[in-house]
Each structure stands twice: as C-alpha cells, then as structure tokens.
C-alpha cells in the first residue's frame, strides 16, 4: 500500500494506528501524527500518581520511538480544522496538510455547559477533573497533600458512558489508601450519577468494606448538576455537598475536533462509525478511534480498547489504500486492571466480535470475566500490562 495518512491525537488509539500503519506497510505508507502535547502521558496508572504510589515520570513516554524507529512524522501542534471535501487539515501553527485518509483519535472533551459553575478557567483550576493525565494529575495530588487530616475528598462520576468505567472507583481506593497511611481521620465520598457501581461491583464494594470501612462512603444517584468552586460545594438535585478537595469529572463527549470536522455525532456526543473500517458513517475517508466513538454494546471506553481500534483501523486502511475490502470479521478484546491499594489489583476482560446482522461488534458470550478476588499477582501483571502497551504503541 502507499499514500499519506494523517493521524490526529497521539494517545492510545492514535499512536497505535500510526505505528502499525508504518510497520504493516513496511514503510510504504507515509504517516504524519499531530499531537498537541510534547510527550505521551498515560491515564492508566495515573491514579497511582494521585494516590502518591507512582510519579509522573513513571507514566510519561517520549514520541522519539515513533519518529526514529518507525519513521512517523510527529508534529507537535493543534489541529484546528478539517476540510473533508478537500482532504486537508489546518494546524494552529498556521500550516495545512493534505491526506489520502485521516484518522481522528482525539479522546474526549468536557461538556462544561452541564456544570455552569465550572465554565471559567479560575473555577476549573480549583475544582479539578484530572481525567486527562498531565498538569491536573499533579495539581490534584498537591491538593490532597495539602488537605488537613480529618478532611473530606469527594469524587463525582458522570452518567455512563464515560471514559474508563472502573477508573473513578480505582481513584477512590487509592486516595483512601493514602489517607489510611498518612491522614487516617480523613474520608472519601463517591458521588455517582449512576444507579449503581458501573464496573467490578462486587470486587470494589468488598475492597471498600474490607480495607476502607469508615473511610470510603458510596452514594449512588448523586449527579452533580452544578458547582460552587469558591466554597468547593457540589450541587446535587436535592442536596449540596461541601468537600475539602472536590474532584468533579464532568460529562464528556468526543474530542472537539470531531464536531469541527463536520462528521456525524450521535446525541451530539459520539462519532458513529462503520465497524469494519472504523470509518465515519457520514464522511468517507475519516476514521475515528478510541473514546470518541459511539460505543458498541458493553464496550468500555478504555486505553486497551483504543489500542485495539488502532490495529483494526490500520489493517482496514492498508486494505482500502490497496483497493481491497477490509476484513469482514474483526474481533477486539479488552482488559482493564484496577488497583484497590498499592499492591492488590482486580481485572475485568471481554471479547467483542463483528456481527453482520446488527452491523456492530457484540460481546462474545462466555469470553472474559472478572478476577475471583483482589490479589498481588495481578498487581505485577497490571504494571506489566502498562509497560507492554506503551511499548506496543510507542517503541
Ligand atoms: P487519548 O489517549 O486521550 O488521546 C487523545 C490525544 O489526542 C491526546 O493526547 C490529546 O492531546 C490529543 N488531541 C486531541 N485533540 C487534538 C487536536 N485537535 N490536535 C492535536 N492533538 C489533539 N484504560 C485502560 O485500558 N486501562 C486502565 O487502567 C485505564 N485507567 C484509566 C485511569 C484514568 C484515571 C483515566 C482518566 C482513564 C483510564 N483509562 C484506562 C482510559 C484511557 O485513558 C482512555 O480510554 C484512552 O486514553 C483513550 O484513548 P484515545 O486515543 O481515545 O484518547
């Protein structure tokens, strides 16, 4: 195959598709990756930085491997516009690039309109989400370190679908682990907009009662409708909740560039794709990966899944660039590990196979499952998973 593919976003989906396009075409396809950040910083394992068990250095990886080993042209810039008819993109830096096929893996952006009190920069710098790893990860850790013993940390979870279903519960555990060691009079309150724990429920609730009785309190049906950032107060439907450290994860949608490129979004939020090629159903030539897509049934928004999307799309794009049809029976899989303390981990896994009748990928019955119980062996496996997937994407 030959041609020029431009990839927007060097996260779990984008970095993977960039590398695999170069590797599988044996250098035949030119690949340009545009990423606004200078280095890759991983959301998976970032909850351990917030809990004080790992450092930012542990979750940061350079783009140098993509450049020097795989010949990907990596440009640090922001993509501000896409012209799907002319097959060009515009960069904030002023230049434009043309493509034969475009891949968007922009992750998520937040729906600030849903939480009016968080619309300004000042409020956003005080009431953090830390749902994109980077400066906010460091800032949330600092807030927790400065909190007095006996204080309350509250984390709010938006209604599903959101990025990383088990992630907020993992964060609650790791903050509680830190409190148990360093600020034993402090509390963690989970304000969940959903009716129930969204992932690994039995395993998380067991960790809360075994390890964090009297520390973690879980409240379901507690959607944050607004925030008073000045007083760190979350406004719920019938109630208000004031915390010492308030961590609000606002509802999110496909990264802004998806809407700006004029492709079809479902519910004004997620991109509708053709699962055989990950191509937008409205706009041929634009493939979309990762958290930005309208998820298939039971499919989580995860880094592991975005990495699988990257490989599915790379194979399909190489076929399309050679005038062939994509594989008619793609299969993808997922495993998400969650730390419940600094050593013990639980996992959930699933396999999803394309179904021609429903034109989507469906969960394969009997495949996957969850850990029997939290255990330290999976703690080692989880750190190995992270190192392996970063190498798979970037080295
Ligand atoms: P991202 O990885 O977010 O990549 C998007 C990239 O696009 C970003 O680097 C961004 O800077 C860039 N970008 C966006 N727009 C533009 C633009 N216009 N121009 C240039 N660049 C742009 N998943 C797991 O599998 N396992 C876990 O254990 C796990 N733990 C998590 C823990 C936390 C706390 C969080 C928040 C998430 C976790 N996840 C986990 C989920 C995982 O991080 C996401 O699902 C994954 O990052 C999605 O990949 P993506 O490529 O869609 O987006």
TrEMBL record:
Naturally occurring in which organism (per UniProt): Dechloromonas hankyongensis
Keywords from the UniProt entry: FAD, Flavoprotein
PANTHER family: FAD-DEPENDENT PYRIDINE NUCLEOTIDE-DISULPHIDE OXIDOREDUCTASE (PTHR43755:SF1), PTHR43755
Domain spans labelled Flavocytochrome c sulphide dehydrogenase flavin-binding: 328-394
Entry-linked Pfam families: FCSD-flav_bind, FCSD_central, Pyr_redox_2, TAT_signal
Protein name in the entry: FCSD flavin-binding domain-containing protein
Domain Sulfide dehydrogenase [flavocytochrome c] flavoprotein chain central, residue spans: 137-250
Highest taxon in the source lineage: Bacteria
Domain FAD/NAD(P)-binding: start-end pairs: 4-127
InterPro entries: FAD/NAD-bd_sf, FAD/NAD-binding_dom, FAD/NAD-linked_Rdtase_dimer_sf, FCSD_central, FlavoCytC_S_DH_flav-bd, FlavoCytC_S_DH_flav-bd_sf, SQRD, TAT_signal
């Amino acid at each position: 195959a030959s041609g020029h593919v431009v990839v927007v976003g060097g996260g779990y989906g984008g970095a993977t598709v960039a590398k695999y396009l170069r590797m599988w075409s044996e250098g035949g396809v030119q690949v340009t990756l545009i990423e606004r950040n200078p280095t890759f910083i991983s959301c998976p394992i970032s909850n351990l930085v917030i809990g004080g068990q790992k450092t930012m250095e542990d979750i940061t990886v350079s783009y140098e491997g993509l450049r020097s080993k795989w010949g990907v042209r990596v440009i640090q810039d922001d993509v501000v516009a896409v012209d799907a008819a002319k097959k060009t993109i515009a960069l904030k830096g002023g230049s434009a690039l043309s493509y034969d096929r475009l891949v968007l893996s922009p992750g998520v952006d937040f729906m600030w309109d849903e939480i009016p009190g968080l619309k300004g920069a000042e409020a956003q710098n005080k009431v953090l989400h830390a749902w994109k790893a980077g400066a906010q990860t460091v800032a949330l850790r600092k807030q927790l370190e400065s909190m007095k013993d006996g204080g309350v940390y509250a984390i709010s979870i938006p209604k599903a679908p959101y990025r990383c279903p088990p992630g907020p519960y993992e964060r609650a555990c790791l903050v509680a682990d830190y409190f148990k060691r360093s600020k034993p009079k402090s509390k963690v309150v989970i304000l969940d907009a959903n009716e129930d724990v969204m992932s690994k429920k039995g395993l998380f609730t067991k960790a809360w009662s075994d390890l964090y009785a009297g520390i973690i309190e879980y409240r379901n049906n507690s959607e944050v409708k607004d925030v008073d950032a000045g007083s760190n107060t979350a406004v719920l439907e019938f109630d208000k909740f004031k915390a010492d450290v308030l961590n609000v994860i606002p509802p999110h949608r496909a990264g802004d560039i998806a809407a700006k490129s004029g492709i079809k979004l479902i519910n004004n939020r997620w991109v509708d794709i053709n699962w055989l090629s990950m191509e937008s159903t409205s706009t041929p030539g634009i493939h979309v990966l990762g958290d930005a897509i309208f998820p298939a049934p039971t499919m989580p928004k995860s880094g592991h899944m975005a990495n699988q999307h990257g490989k599915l799309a790379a194979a399909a794009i190489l076929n399309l660039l050679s005038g062939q049809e994509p594989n008619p029976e793609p299969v993808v899989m997922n495993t998400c590990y969650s730390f419940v303390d600094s050593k013990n981990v639980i996992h959930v896994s699933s396999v999803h196979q394309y179904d021609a009748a429903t034109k989507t990928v469906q969960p394969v019955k009997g495949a996957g499952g969850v850990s029997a119980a939290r255990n330290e062996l999976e703690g080692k496996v989880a750190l190995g998973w992270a190192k392996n997937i970063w190498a798979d994407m970037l080295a």
